[in-house]
Amino acid sequence: MNKIDGFTCIQMSKELEVNEFVSFHYFEYPKDFFFPGEKHDFWEFLYVDRGDVYVSCDGKPKTLLTQGQIIFHKPNEFHTVECDKVVSPSLVVISFVCNSPCMSFFENKILRITNHSRFLLSLVMDETRRIFSTNLANPFYRELDFANPVPFSAQTLVRNYFECFLLDIITSNNPQGEGIKAISKTTELETTRERFLEAQEYMLLHISDNLSLDEICHDCSMSKANIQNVFRKETQMSVIEYYNSRKIDEAKKRIREGKGTMTTIAYSLGYNSIHYFSRQFHKFAGMSPVEYSRSIKSVLADKGAQYRN
User: Which residues, in sequence order, are CB contacts of 177 under 8 Å at separation 6+?
Assistant: First the structure.
């Protein structure tokens, strides 16, 4: 221990340290997607944000992962992913290098993460979208490209949030306690995110309706100014703009699952005009509904060609 001006300095131990990141992905898979498998000399986890998927490790029988569950693949563990041909899932996949001994906790486990762990993971993904110009939904990229410029603090935040995410999973799944305390929460940030998630849940329950701002405020017991402030902080969108974006997310999911024509999908989500639906789709997805459908089919074709060659 060092001494400075008569004060004793202590050095904190670090139980977990992530050395490098390899990839960050947020996938929206077609319902019949199949990944025949790979292995690599670094850690990778798969978290099911929405839907269900089947995974298999080292040739073992496939296991169903449901929404909210996470599986870690240790270095050089062969793993596959397969959709159930019914539900179109959304998955977070992050690959990284970590040599800390406590990573052995994650071996051969499927875990359901807590709301706080999910909150930390959402912070990780928010920051990565600021750091990289790479399309994180592209399943084929081999290298992450930094944005220009990289926002100040973003890289440090990704690493710190991610290490907290891993530690939070360990501590929240430690039945004996062993003297480990849960990671403290950032109160203001957590409160804002909780209010946002509450409003988001209400929107998803009424995704086929045409909610007004008054209705959302009433259900969430928030003033218009307060809820708009929360959504600006969380999404850089207004409340109604975000609600419309989630409608398009649901439309994309139904397209991937083949649930109806473009017209029936539009009407099932509360759109009275197919032309307005197409304009909204292009606004949030950057392409028309038909172009999106074609892009999903090309993902399957390209993946199949990749593994046939």
Answer: none
Q: Which domain covers residue 58, as residue numbers?
A: 18-172
Beta-carbon count within 10 A of 68 CB:
16
Report the CATH number that the domain containing residue 53 is assigned in CATH.
2.60.120.280
Q: What is d(CA 210, CA 200) in angstroms, rounded to the nearest whole number?
A: 14
Asked whether the predicted pLDDT for residue 275 surpasses 50, the reply is yes
- Which pLDDT does position 301 carry in this prediction? 61
Q: Are 98 and 24 members of one domain?
A: yes
76 lies in a domain?
yes
Residue 48 CB-density burial (10 A; 0-12 exposed, 13-18 middle, 19+ buried): buried
- Counting Cα atoms < 13 Å in the Cβ hemisphere of 269 gives 31
Q: What is the pLDDT of residue 180?
A: 43
Angle at 258 between CA 256 and CA 263, to 5 degrees: 105
Q: What is the pLDDT of residues 50-80, one digit of tens each?
A: 889 999 999 889 999 998 999 999 999 999 9
Going from the C-alpha of 253 to that of each of 31, 134, 184, 289, the distances in angstroms are 9, 22, 35, 11
